[in-house]
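Incident log, structure service

09:12 report received: a user says their structure output differs between two submissions of the same chain.
09:20 pulled the input from the user's history:
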Amino acid sequence: MAGLDAATLADVLRVAGSADFDRWQEQIRRTGGCSDPIRLTGGTKTVDPTTKTVLHSYTTEHEPGGMLRIACGNRRASRCPACAWTYAGDTYHLIRAGLTGDPSKGTPETVRDHPRVFATLTAPSFGPVHNRPGNRPCRCGSRHSEDALELGTPLDPASYDYAGAVLWNNHASELWRYFTIYLRREIARRAGLTQKAAREQSRVSFGKVAEYQKRGAVHFHAVIRFDGPEGPNSPPPTWATLDLLTDAIHAAAVRVAVDVSPAGDEPARTLRWGTQLDVQPIGAFGHGEDITEQAVASYVAKYATKAAETTGTVDRRIGNKEALELLEVPDHPRRLIEACLDLHPLYPDRKLRDWAHMLGFRGHFSTKSRRYSTTLGALRQVRADYRAAQQRESLGLPDPDDVEATTLTLAHWTYAGHGHTLGESWLAANIRRDIQQNRETAREELPALLDLEGAAA
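09:34 re-ran on a clean worker, output below:
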């Protein structure tokens, strides 16, 4: 407990010395060590509707503090590493199911044979920044290390287009929407078909994630896949080739343009994608390919839990410029946030003040087309159903799917707050680290166990 301040240490001793500490630990372990658990009061009652017999009842009256603690579910790793780990895992399985196929998630394994690429669409330049251009020195004359703090910051902040940068972030989701529209048009043009005919013969599915570059500009990584008319369950037509898809992506990105009207001293702008468009085919089995299914799913999952805080900003809304000094936000992200606050009165419908902490970006970080694969909601429901089945088994309750053993569950819950005390927060963080260490140990030992099983066979 070295390094703890007196108040935190006193609270740790209070919590650890309480009579119901073991039950408190059990609750926190069930949340994975959640940093900001939701506290509920209430209970449930399971009854037999025919005989009115109470089969099981639960109340929070006997829980630590009279409350049940459940995971907050926040996707941001900066807010709750435990819940972000779960969110990343769900995103990984969602993306992977659309690449390898997974019948249990509604995607056939034949989807592996469909043309698919991993595309990265970036923002244009808003001014020269410190970088690492291969083996050459930066334009400033230095050779920056990979972890250099100045990477991504402007060579000349006074001439950097901060207004253009945050307006581009703010409209990035619209740029993506127009890109998907033009992509379908470019596919039809290259196939020599009308747009209606192309839609009747094929579909384009995608799953994407947003990532912040060091300079604070958003870019999108997307899995884009050709399907047949029924989605992943049908093969694409013979004309729907990998080369056609790649060419159509390049052509569509060039066509996209979003106009921003002049306001105050701000000129009219036409926002476009940057020239650094990267489109690479995804290998099915990882036999030396640069981009494999595993790598893509892992990459997308990694960035699904990150946001603008990776650039040095904060992960909560900022009401005014004075707060930036108190929060000690670095110069470059501070200037981007100030640009959002200054532009808000000129473009009130864009809600730049509300999204200043996101450097103007107001879109979803992880999205997919309807037929790409399963949904996050479906994955969460599977997990909830599994836990419910475990609990029913431990309590000896009948399966709700058994028509001969119908039960009725009555529940009443009241929100009682969220979060931890100082001591609880420190203990929960240690629980999360223990869980994470156990996971990493199990992952490291798995290959050895598989080798032993193979040798025994």
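09:41 both user submissions now match this output. Likely a transient worker issue. Closing.
09:42 reviewer note: The chain is about 40% helix and 15% strand. Residues 422-456 form the longest helix (35 residues).
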